[in-house]
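Batch job 17 of 40 flagged for manual review because the log was empty.
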Amino acid sequence: MGSTGFMITLSVLLIVGAVAGVVAQRRAGRTRRPAGRPGRFGRPDRPGRSGPPGPSGLSDLDAEVEANHWLIRLGGGLVPPDARSWAGADETAGRALTGAAQCHRAARDRLTGARTAEEYEEVTRMAKEGLEHLRAARAALGQPASADGLPALPRAARVPAVGGACAVPSR
């Protein structure tokens, strides 16, 4: 083996050793970092992500996924398939659309600070309330209740819409 082959072999071994060292260092650092300190991508670790189930029996992670699902569904419903029909909305439909938008904003804001299953379930409740406002707006406009292409909100999942705004309890 000539000097060129020796240099290539040595370079490959050095690269493999460096990669193995970085991987070992990251694994060791991951187990030693205290909770709450910045973790991957500069975000603080969130302890209890798969913690004890909340009142509905969901773990923190499952509750977060469900809250995101309902929030995305509400946000998609706020984008009208035919904007012209919403532009000529009467007062009843306008109040209902405003209520849905307020619920979306409040649920989105609450989601950013949620950490427990109970907090995520509150976000889910707000998003479902917003969907009820959206359902009322569509009824006032003479549109189908589910113009977003998704199946209608199940009866068991419905939350009665109250007034013209999302009822946001204090933290």
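Reviewer: the log was empty due to a logging misconfiguration, but the result itself is present. The helical segments are 3-32, 60-77, 83-87, 91-113, 117-141. Unflagging and moving on to job 18.
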